């Protein structure tokens, strides 16, 4: 598959940043780790380096675009319609505890709609990517959502709120309703990977009730191009700033929305 110059630039930026993160993970004990909102919400100099790496590469490719990064916030661009949306290290807690399940998340939004996305998982050598109208891909192979048809057969991914996040009671109620209705519930600790796994059929759905734009932007276009649906958790059109996301197969969306909205 020949990628467009846009996707090639996004993949290159994500892979270079990912290589840096792998190197940084070998020296976790020497990293400067800081807290955002409490001990459950951490970041390190590795996050900052990865974001700078991605930003420099993307701004070299399209210097007029805006840039929204988890660590640095929003920088407006001369081109007001286009914004890069970047999570340089999705799964920071995993990274800091030595887990291989973390990713670099890079997306491009045009007038608020995500048109291209890359989720790179360096330790697994897996790069998920999509551009509107070009399908969804894992490395050089096309991917599609699961063909399972019933909620009872489904394996679902979920984002569990950590200590400083809201909606713990909502999560507990969801678990009480869903655990006896599905084949499995999973929590990877990196929403970008969860959404990529919906796109390639490893999961049938993923949802989270307290999520940021940079966590879900790339996954939104990857899941859609793989044949899935991406909305808010009440079925409303996805709002990148709305704080919730549901990515799932069309076959189980109605049943799942009924449980999430109960």
UniProtKB/TrEMBL annotation:
Q: Give the matching Gene3D superfamilies.
A: 3.40.190.80, Fructose-1,6-Bisphosphatase, subunit A, domain 1
What InterPro entries does the database record attribute to this sequence?
Answer: IMPase, Inositol_monoP_metal-BS, Inositol_monophosphatase-like, Inositol_monophosphatase_CS, Inositol_monophosphatase_SuhB
Key word Metal-binding present: yes
What CDD domains does the record point to? IMPase (cd01639)
GO process annotations (BP): inositol metabolic process; phosphatidylinositol phosphate biosynthetic process; signal transduction
Q: Which UniProt keywords apply?
A: Hydrolase, Magnesium, Metal-binding
Native source organism of the sequence:
Sphingomonas horti
Quote the EC number: 3.1.3.25
The name under which this protein is listed is Inositol-1-monophosphatase
Major enzyme class: hydrolase
Q: Which SUPFAM superfamilies match?
A: Carbohydrate phosphatase
The record's family statement is: Belongs to the inositol monophosphatase superfamily.
- Name the cofactor(s) required for activity, per the record: Mg(2+)
Q: Which residues participate in Mg(2+) 1 binding?
A: 70, 87, 89, 215
Give the source lineage, highest ranks first: Bacteria, Pseudomonadati, Pseudomonadota, Alphaproteobacteria, Sphingomonadales
What catalytic activity is recorded?
a myo-inositol phosphate + H2O = myo-inositol + phosphate
């Amino acid at each position: 598959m020949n990628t467009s110059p846009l996707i090639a630039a996004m993949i290159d930026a994500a892979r270079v940043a990912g290589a840096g993160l792998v190197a940084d993970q070998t020296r976790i004990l020497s990293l400067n780790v800081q807290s955002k909102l409490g001990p459950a919400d951490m970041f390190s100099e590795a996050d900052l380096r990865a974001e700078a790496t991605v930003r420099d590469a993307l701004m070299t490719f399209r210097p007029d675009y805006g840039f929204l990064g988890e660590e640095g916030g929003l920088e407006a661009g001369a081109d007001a319609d286009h914004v890069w949306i970047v999570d340089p290290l999705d799964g920071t807690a995993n990274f800091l505890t030595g887990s291989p399940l973390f990713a670099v998340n890079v997306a491009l939004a045009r007038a608020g709609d995500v048109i291209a996305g890359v989720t790179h998982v360096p330790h697994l050598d897996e790069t998920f990517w999509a551009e509107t109208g070009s399908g969804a891909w894992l490395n050089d192979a096309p991917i599609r959502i699961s063909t399972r048809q019933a909620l009872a057969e489904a394996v679902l991914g979920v984002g569990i709120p950590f200590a400083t996040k809201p909606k713990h009671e909502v999560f507990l109620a969801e678990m009480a309703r869903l655990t006896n209705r599905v084949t499995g519930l999973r929590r990877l600790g990196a929403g970008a990977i969860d959404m990529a796994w919906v796109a390639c059929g490893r999961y049938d759905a993923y949802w989270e009730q307290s999520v940021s734009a940079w966590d879900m932007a790339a996954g939104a276009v990857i899941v859609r191009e793989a044949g899935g649906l991406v909305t808010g958790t009440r079925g409303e059109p996805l709002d990148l700033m709305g704080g919730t996301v549901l990515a799932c197969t069309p076959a189980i969306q109605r049943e799942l929305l009924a449980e999430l909205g109960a």
